[in-house]
Amino acid sequence: MTNIDATNTDVQTAQPQPTSLHARINAALTGAAIPTDLLDLDARDPLARKREEFTLPGGVVYLDGNSLGALPRAVPERLQQVAAQEWGDALIRSWSAGAGEGRDWMNLPDRVAAKIAPLIGALPHEVAVTDTTGVNTFKVLAAALKLAPAGRRVILTDAENFPTDLYIAQGLLDLLGGGYELRRVNPEALGEHLSRVHEIVTVLMVRETLSGEEFSALLNGQELEPLPPVAPPAPASLPG
Predict the structure, then answer these.
(1) Nearest-angstrom CA–CA distance, 187 and 118
(2) Distance, CA of 155 to CA of 184 (rounded, Å)
(3) Which residue, among 81, 46, 162, 193, has the nearest Cα to 170 in the 3D structure?
């Protein structure tokens, strides 16, 4: 029999490797060794070169672009140009100056929309770049309530909708001085609730597209043709 002094023996236990992609990415982000297959995927990523176009601190994997995107390296110089030349020197002439070359401010939303269109599988004239999501939400709710018949006084929403959108709806109803209701319904009960209250609903706020059956409930129970499938976005041509 062999005696083993546990106090002096260096025993290393192999740690189980995470199996799911999510678990392996999480392990990589928390300091564990990055699996070789993930490194291989990263090396073959056709968009990997785009990372060099952004200013990011060393050792950071930044995944919060929906809240605040990383700073593109070209932006500070462009901001300086706009502030010093287009605003400082040209002043209000910048609204129309250079329209023929696509440099005027007036048509900038249309030019930006045309750049977004191929990314979402749309034609340039089908996309509009306007105010922020919050400002547009306020405007569309206000317009809908103003246009609605007298009996339609309810904004119906998925109870798990984005909180900021719900705050905007609440603020608008307070501003209008009463008479309207923001009604929250659990997502799984939304279709059934619509079938009972569609005659008093002015606006429906949901986080995702309704099925044809749910949407038909809003139209007095009328049966709709099945909604056509959404075509996948056309491949976008990215600048070099």
Answers:
(1) 32
(2) 9
(3) 162
